[in-house]
Every structure is written in C-alpha cells, then in structure tokens.
C-alpha cells in the first residue's frame, strides 16, 4: 500500500524515548502545519501505524528496546507500511549511523545538531518523493490492467479468427 496522498495536514509519527526532545519536535513540527502523532519507543510506533494513516516516520536511531533501524526493518516488512518514508535522527557520536539506517531501509538520516528548517525541508522532500512513487505505482497498475484487458481481447480475436478459418474450410469443402 502506498503512503497516504492527501492535501490535509500531513501526519508525522515522531518517535523518541527522550520526552523533552519528543515534545519539542512535536511542538515545532505542529507549528509548521503537520499533524503530529508521538510514540516513546519502536513498539508504540508500530501500534500507531496500525491505528491511523501516517505520511512519514521520524525516529531516533538509538532507542530501547527497539532501535531506529529495527523499527525501520519492521515497517519495511509489513506490506501495508512498506512505502511510508522513514527518517532517523542520529547523534554525530554514534558510529556509522547512516550505514545502519540505510541498510535497514531508511530514506534519510538527520545528524544532531540540525537546523530545524533543514529538517522541515528534508521531510517535505521525502514526502514529495513518496507521492511521486505512489503515483508511478498507480500508473503502472493501471497500465498492467490495460495490458491484461488487451491480452484478453487479443485472445478473443484469435479464437474468433480460428472459428472463421474453420468455417471457411467447412464451406469450401
């Protein structure tokens, strides 16, 4: 299933075990026009994904008991959410955060400290890419359906042609 494509307020799931960081991100992103859903860990985040459509997940790389990369893998394994963009926030002190995040299927990694305006720009870029991918997939499905219909029509025409040839042989004999 493709990520939701809506003109309403985009729904972001923000995941962080740090309550003050979670509250700050929720407040600032809410002020930017996003509808914010929060979770304190990966398991709660998966529960939120099941509750209502989410346009993008923004999660900490380091969390317990489920890390950001583990959350990303769990999202990617579920067909219903596999196309939801995931961005992970990592500390510069963490070893190879981008490698672990990208290997798990995250679309982006934001290193702390970051400029909030850059975060918002990157969120919008990921949402735009997700909408474009969803539109391409819908176009491909429509093309596949048209191709299947044409194959059926071709089969029917072929059957009709064989029937006409058989009728022609019968009449000439």
TrEMBL record:
InterPro entries, alphabetized: CheY-like_superfamily, Sig_transdc_resp-reg_receiver, WalR-like
The protein's matches in PROSITE patterns, at most eight in alphabetical order, are given as:
RESPONSE_REGULATORY
Q: Which PANTHER family match?
A: KDP OPERON TRANSCRIPTIONAL REGULATORY PROTEIN KDPE (PTHR48111:SF50), REGULATOR OF RPOS (PTHR48111)
Q: Indicate yes or no for the key word DNA-binding.
A: yes
The protein's superkingdom reads: Bacteria
The protein, known as: Response regulatory domain-containing protein
Name the species this protein comes from. Answer: Sphingomonas humi
Name the UniProt key words of this record, in alphabetical order: DNA-binding
Taxonomy, top ranks, is: Bacteria, Pseudomonadati, Pseudomonadota, Alphaproteobacteria, Sphingomonadales
Q: Does this entry carry the keyword DNA-binding?
A: yes
Q: Which residues form the Response regulatory domain?
A: 11-127
């Amino acid at each position: 299933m493709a990520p939701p494509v809506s003109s309403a307020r985009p729904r972001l799931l923000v995941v962080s075990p740090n309550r003050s960081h979670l509250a700050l991100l929720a407040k600032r992103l809410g002020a930017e026009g996003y509808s914010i859903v929060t979770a304190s860990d990966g398991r709660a985040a998966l529960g939120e994904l099941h509750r209502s459509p989410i346009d993008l997940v923004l999660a900490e790389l380091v969390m317990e008991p489920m890390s950001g990369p583990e959350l990303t893998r769990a999202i990617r394994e579920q067909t219903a959410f596999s196309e939801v963009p995931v961005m992970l926030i990592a500390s510069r002190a963490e070893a190879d955060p981008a490698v672990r995040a990208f290997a798990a299927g995250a679309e982006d990694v934001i290193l702390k400290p970051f400029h909030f305006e850059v975060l918002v720009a990157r969120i919008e870029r990921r949402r735009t890419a997700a909408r474009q991918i969803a539109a391409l997939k819908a176009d491909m499905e429509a093309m596949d359906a048209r191709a299947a219909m044409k194959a059926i029509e071709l089969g029917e025409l072929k059957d009709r042609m064989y029937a006409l040839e058989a009728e022609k042989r019968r009449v000439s004999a």
